[in-house]
Amino acid sequence: MFDDGLGLYLATSAFALAVLIHVRRYWDSHSGSPLPPGPTPLPVLGNFLSIDAAQPWVTFNSWKSTYGEIIYARLLSKPVVVMNSVEVTKDLFEGRSHIYSDKPQSILHEPFAVDFNVVFMPYGDRWRLHRRILHQTLRQAEIHSYHAAQRRSAHKMLFSLLQDPENYLSHFQMFIMSFMLPIVYDYEPKAQEDPIVDAMTRYGDLMVDNTAPGPWVVMETFPFLLQLPSWFPGATFKRASVKCIQAGHDIQELPFQYVKESMSTRGTAPCLVADALNRMRLSEEDDGMTTAIKEAASIAFAAASETSTSTLCVFLLAMVLNPEAQAKAQAEINQVVGKDRLPDFDDRPAMPYLEAILRETLRWHPVTPLSTPHTTTTSDIYKGYFIPKGVLVYANIWAMTHDEKKYPSPDEFKPERFLHEDGSLTSDTMLLGFGLGRRSCVGRHLADASLWIAIASFLAGFSAHKALDKYGMDIPIVPKFSSGTIIHPEKFPCRIVPRFPGASVRALTHLTGLEQS
Hints:
Layout lengths: L1 H28 L26 H12 L2 E6 L2 E6 L2 H9 L2 H4 L24 H14 L8 H17 L4 H18 L9 H16 L2 H9 L14 H29 L7 H12 L5 H33 L1 H14 L15 H13 L9 E2 L4 E3 L2 E3 L4 E4 L1 H5 L42 H18 E5 L27 E5 L6 H8 L5
Parallel strand pairs: 2-6
Antiparallel strand pairs: 1-2, 3-6, 4-5, 7-8
């Protein structure tokens, strides 16, 4: 009985989908201008089977040589436009931001707890409110006030790497948490079994795993998958949804209630949540402001943690695989900083090669290779092509950072591509991964500063090398990356070796000025 009903539902869904596609194709063909070029779609399935679901950005990039810098495709019922160049992305996201700044709304946003995420919000008053709350704390003019906290967190990371180098992923995560939680919540995380850290980590992992384009399209096309009971065999989407909803609740409530309790009892230092609540009280008007503060704060932390941790893992992989680049950066640190202290933000302008290392890390393997989709608020004509209203628009960051004309041998890690012959930096800042236009990442300046101090501190204190087998030979590394909206290298074996004299906690304490906690 259940099987018969399910079969009828699938057949009806397929028929309705075919009708919808036919109507859309008819409408598009009568627009007066052709759609952007793209591969010929199959009935019902469209181009879904032609795309690498784990790495769709690679597929879209491979189509660039055949179809060009702007491509039209269909993933089941979803028409998509993919931009494979910086020029096209700037033209649309910046030059025509009034058309391309919206985000598609999905029946999946609430079941997977991303409905309160500013990245997925439609362009409108709610998004503006969240953006304003975040901007107050994360705007560029405020970043210098966080340098001391970022520097201290980087130094704590060095202590952790000295004592337990194999657990580098956790140390990178704690580096981000140890300055972000005070900035957002005036909360000092515990080294182990911290309920707020655990909640944030759990939510971040679930968000990344469950918002990939491939599974997202499948669930939107067949929404009954989310109606199955969680105990039903194969109901993986439903079980993931239950976990996401709980995690989304936890990251909003646990740290927010901590701040409220602190404000009413022992007082709290300036932080995003306390400052926003105080501004709200002065205006004597809530009107949903409390909820917005709670939501914006939780996403400020979650987004920063996932992207920055993943980028530091890419950096570590690059250093292990490219020892000559690591040695050049360390020579520059020795020359500018010396060996009696660690790098500080004031040293940044004097170390162009280190800056090139950071830029090449962002280019070599961008951790957000395919932007979250935008959607058009009205139809548009661009370079003679018709772009329909409501189409999903993706910026393929991977294609832009692996453009062979701009970055020859793009799969190689070559920091020198960001340097002139005289050693000075080029104007290519490599901030594509933070987005373009009105929906660019509001925390990009904080992220840039945190990545720089972490990389500079690591290279001043440590070297990264391939792990050795029992015969003392290098263990080969074949890089593998996760899938999802934010990607990272899968854990790889490596040796993290101290550079400072004595290789002891006492020596590191002298360099950092910190006592071991």
